Each structure stands twice: as C-alpha cells, then as structure tokens.
Amino acid sequence: MAPPGASSYLGPRLRRLRRDLGLTQAQMATDLEISPSYIALLERNQRPLTADLLLRLARTYKLDMAQLAADEGPQLAARLQAMLRDPMFADIELPPLEAGDVASNFPAVAEAMLRLHAAYQRDQTALADRAAEGAGAAAEGDDPVAEARRFIGARRNSFPALDDAAERLAEAVASDGGLEQWFRARHQLRVRYLPPDVLMGSLRRYDRHREEVLINDTLDQPSRRFQLALQLVYLAMRRDLDAMVKEVGEASESGRKLIRRTLANYAAAAVLMPYTAFARAVEARAYDVEALARHFGTSFEQTAHRLTTLHKPGHERVPFFFIRVDQAGNVSKRLDGGGFPFARHGGGCPLWSLHSVFTVPGQVVPQWIELPDGARYFSIARTVGAGGGSFGAPQLVRAIALVCAAADAPRLVYARAHPDPGPGGGTPIGVTCRLCHRPLCPARALPPVGRAILSDETHRPGAAYSLADE
C-alpha cells in the first residue's frame, strides 16, 4: 500500500481497471469527482495517482487497495524476458533493462507481444503434430528438407561426376602437401584456428577481405579437416555444384540452397575419402568403419555416411541404408542406398538396436533384423557425438545405423562375429507400428492400420492391443 501523501504513476493499470469495470473516462471522472481530462492525464502517466485518489478508487469500487497498488511490472517484465529467450530472437540484442522498461511503461504493448507469442507457439505445436501424423504430407512440396531428400534419394546418394572431380582435386591437394598448403598455394589464403567467441559461434568462415579461412579451434581433427575440405569444394568445384543444381527441376529457393549444401558436403567427403582409394579400402578392411575412419582421418559418422555412396557403375560396393536419430527418435539424416523400407512418417521400431545404443555409448551393436514380410537385413548401430570441445559447451549425442541386405552381410567384419541365424532368427521389427501387423509385439505403441481392436472385458492380452483377425 502506498504511504499517506505518496503518489505513483499507474496509468496503464488505471486504464485496465476502468475497462474491466465497463466505464468511460467521463463516467469514472463523475464517480471520483474529478474531471475527464484529469482521468486521461492519469491514464497516460502524465499525472501521478496520489494516495488520496487511490483511497477514493478503493472505496468507490470496493477494491482491495493492496492489490490495486501492487506493482505488476516485475512479474510482467519476467514474463517478457522469458518470451524473449525464444531462439527466434537469438540474433537480437535485448538487454533485460529494456524489457523492464517496456513492461513498466508500455504494459499493454508487452501484453500484446506475449499474446502473439503464445499464439505463435500454439500454431507451431499444431504444425508439428500434423507433420508427425503425416497430415502435412500434402504440403511437403514446400518443405526444403523433403525436396533435398527426394533429390538425393532419386539418385541413391550417388553422384559419380562429383566423385571424379573430387578425386582429381584430392590428387592436387596431396601434391601440394595437404589442405592448408593447397589454400596457400592456389588461392593465397591463410588458414587460422580461432576460439568460438571470435568466430561468433561459427564453425568456419571465409574472410575474403583478409584472405583467410577461419576454423573454430574447438573442433576435433576430423571436423577441422572436413570444414577445410568443404571450403575447398566451394572454391574449386563451384561449376560442378552449379551443374548439379541445374538438374533439380522444380524446387523452392530454400530447397535449391539445401541441395547445393548437401552436394557440397558429399564432395567434401569425396575429397577426404576419394572413391577409388576408399572403395579398395572397404573391401580390404571388410567394411570396418572404425578402421576406415582411422585410415582416412575421418570420423565414424563421416565414414559411415560415405559408405552409402559407393554405387559408381562398374565399381559398386555393398549398398547401405543410413539413418541418424536423436534420443527423442527424431530423424535428422536418412540416406537410402540399399532399399530399406523405412517409414517417412511416424516413429521407428523400439526393438531396433538403433534406439537402444544410447545405453552403450561408443559401442558398435550388430543386429540381424526381420521385417513382417520376411525381408531380412543386417544392421550395425552406434552413438556419435557432436558439439563439445570445451568446458561447458553443449554436446549432442545421436545414434546412427548402417543397414544392408542379409545377402551382403557376410562381406562385413561385424557379421563374421555374429553369424546369420537364418529366417525367423533375427529380431522381428516393423517399419512403424501403423504398418506392422504383428499381433503379439510387446513394444507396440499404436494399432496397425486396418485392424479392428477387440474388447478386453474377459481377458487382457500381453500386447498393448487385442487385434481382430484380418
């Protein structure tokens, strides 16, 4: 409560009170025995609300004076600051003091912003729900990620022209003595490794003005080499990338940019792991991903990714399906070079080791799997890390899997230690619960499409649902 004789600027709160009571300025002025113009000045914070007038308000409208005099500014400022921490505002400098000023001096504007943000969050949640249910498939043509996946999938993630150009570039790099020497000799560029705060969070930056390629010094060695190879591709293979993007056909501008970035990443991997040398090494080392990674100085994930690209006519190797998921099951990368029928919508099967390797980080887990139609595959799964590199830096742990047909598995070192159990001996998994009709699956989350659910009044099955015969 304000002490006797004290005064406060409470214009926005007075305006809200008047509107809540359904009064005009003239009506409130009559009730309080003051002029309408004085009410207007009070609401615009051009006059303070005195303790005497505050008492008069409380008596006239039977209000709790403590509640009326309470300062809501800090609470509104805290709500506003929480909203402004949304990642969509990350590139805008918003000092807490400014949020407090807006909340104190323009509470209606602050409240409007909070309502808009709440509506935005509701819409984003609804869109995510529709996409997860597959209802967003009709709009997929406007999804740049879907456009890039279609482009890559139609070519089985194999681009022989890029492989050939990258192999020639790798020879030039080797003759110059390495990536850093290539930049110096061919483009007079110096490579520097700088702290992340200097690079403002970037992993790599090409500074044309200072003639430097700047790399985040917290990256591990495989990631440093990959970023250098990627910048090399953008400088030396620009025409090759342009020619490939011209083949895209109809696509959004964002889709074209994402496809170009995907092709550049492909070419960078091809520079580090040239096709001819890599294809020869995979056979010699029986597709041992870790051994190949150490041989080429790449990461486990980079090497596994490269294994999906070996489809050059006359020089083909085992076709693989590659997938990467996080602990929530979100798919961040999917490449199909082996015809594995992975669902585009809905969650994966929890019986697949891809989803359980988080309990054994860094360990390769082989698994024979069998789909409901009898198709059999061999899978290896392992966790991989991203980020980190310094104390307190966030690190993301994800899981990747490589899958090949059962017939190709004997060529893999992993299958030699885990012999083929034969039909019916692998782990019975489904593409997704909606498409899997195994009635006794203990891991089922949803009933399959087209199957009626039986009543469980007289018995409760071990599975989540009791399904009628087809």
Task: Quickly list its features.
Arc Repressor Mutant, subunit A; three-stranded mixed beta sheet; six-stranded mixed beta sheet; 18 helices; 470 residues; 434 Repressor (Amino-terminal Domain); 5 domains; alpha+beta
CATH C-level category of the largest domain: Mainly Alpha
Arithmetic mean of pLDDT: 84
> Could you tell me the strand content as a percent range?
5-15%
Structural class: alpha+beta
Radius of gyration based on Cα positions: 31 Å
Ends: how far apart? Answer: 73 Å
Q: How many domains? A: 5
- Unreliable stretches (pLDDT < 50, length at least 5) are 1-6, 135-140
Annotated CATH topology of the largest domain: Arc Repressor Mutant, subunit A
Specify the biggest β-sheet: 6 strands, mixed
Oligomer: single chain
**What is the overall shape?**
flat
The total count of helices amounts to 18
Number of strands: 11
Mind telling me which CATH architecture of the largest domain this is? Orthogonal Bundle
**Helix and strand sequence:** EHHHEHHHHHHHHEEEHHHHHHEEEEEHE
Taking strands numbered 1, 2, ... along the chain, how are they ordered across the largest sheet?
7-6-10-9-8-11
Keywords: DNA-binding, Transcription, Transcription regulation
Pfam family, one: HTH_31
Organism: Novosphingobium flavum
Protein name: DUF2083 domain-containing protein
Characterise the protein shown here.
This protein has helices at 11-21, 25-32, 36-43, 51-61, 65-69, 73-84, 96-105, 107-132, 144-154, 160-176, 179-187, 221-236, 238-245, 253-272, 275-284, 289-296, 300-307, 413-416, and strands at 7-8, 49-50, 190-194, 204-207, 212-216, 321-325, 331-336, 365-370, 376-387, 395-405, 427-428. The model is unreliable at 1-6 and 135-140 (pLDDT under 50). With 470 residues, the protein is an alpha+beta fold. It is flat and about 95 Å long. Helices cover 43% and strands 13% of the residues. The longest helix is centred in the N-terminal third of the chain and has 26 residues, at 107-132.
